[in-house]
Write a structure and sequence with these properties.
Elements: H1 12-22, E1 36-40, E2 45-49, H2 54-61, E3 71-73, E4 76-80, H3 82-85, H4 89-94, E5 101-106, H5 116-137, E6 141-146, H6 158-183
Helix pairs in contact: 1-2
Length: about 180
C-alpha cells in the first residue's frame, strides 16, 4: 500500500529563496517589530512567532496546508496562519499595536461546482469571509483588493495581480493619510 504524502510540494525551493532573502536575520533584529502568524494543527490555536530566525517563522507562516508540509517548532506542528487568521488584526492588537492597517483580497468563489473539491473550496471561502469580517472590525484602516479577475490557484498572472494590488493600495493612501492625521492631532 502506498503511503499518502503530507503535501504536494516540499519546502526545498522555499528554503533556498528564504536563505537568499533573510540569511541569518532574527525577529529581534527587525527595525519595525515583525511577527509571523501561524496555526498549530495539533491544538487548533493561532501561534504568533516573534523570536528566533526569520526563516523559521516565515517558512511556517507560508506552509499552506496540503500544498506545503507543516513545520515542526517547539513541540508544535505549524501551518500558515490564514487558516484562522487570514487578517491577523486581533493578534496584532494583543501584541500592542495601536494602529492596524489590514489588507484583504476579495475573491468571488465559483458557485459552479464541478466536483467535491470545488464544493469544499466554496464552503471554505464562505467561512474565511466571515472570519475576515471579524478581523477587519479590529482594524483601524482596511484596504480591500478585489481579485475576482484572478484565480488564486493559478500563478501565471502574478505580475498583473501584484500591479493591480499596488494600484489599489496607492489609491487608498490619501484616505489613510487623512485618518493618520486625525489621530495624531
Amino acid at each position: 500500500m502506498a503511503a499518502l504524502r503530507k503535501s504536494i510540494q516540499s519546502h526545498k525551493n522555499n528554503l533556498k529563496a528564504l536563505r537568499i532573502l533573510l540569511d541569518e536575520a532574527r525577529f529581534e533584529d527587525t527595525k519595525i517589530p515583525f511577527s509571523a502568524i501561524t496555526m498549530d494543527i495539533m491544538t487548533g490555536k493561532t501561534t504568533v512567532i516573534k523570536k528566533g530566525k526569520l526563516i523559521d517563522g516565515v517558512l511556517a507562516s507560508a506552509s499552506i496546508p496540503g500544498i506545503f508540509p507543516p513545520v515542526a517548532r517547539s513541540k508544535k506542528l505549524l501551518v500558515d496562519g490564514f487558516v484562522l487568521a487570514n487578517i491577523p488584526a486581533p493578534e496584532l492588537r494583543q501584541q500592542g499595536a495601536d494602529f492596524i492597517i489590514s489588507i484583504g483580497l476579495e475573491e468571488r468563489p465559483n458557485k459552479n461546482f464541478q466536483n467535491g473539491v470545488d464544493l469544499i473550496y466554496y464552503v471554505e471561502s464562505i467561512k474565511q469571509k466571515q472570519l475576515d469580517k471579524w478581523a477587519i472590525a479590529e482594524s483601524d484602516f482596511h484596504i480591500n483588493i478585489e481579485m475576482t479577475k484572478f484565480d488564486a490557484t493559478h500563478f501565471e498572472n502574478y505580475e498583473v495581480a501584484i500591479k493591480h494590488g499596488y494600484n489599489i493600495a496607492k489609491k487608498s493612501m490619501p484616505l489613510l493619510v487623512k485618518k493618520l492625521e486625525k489621530i495624531n492631532v
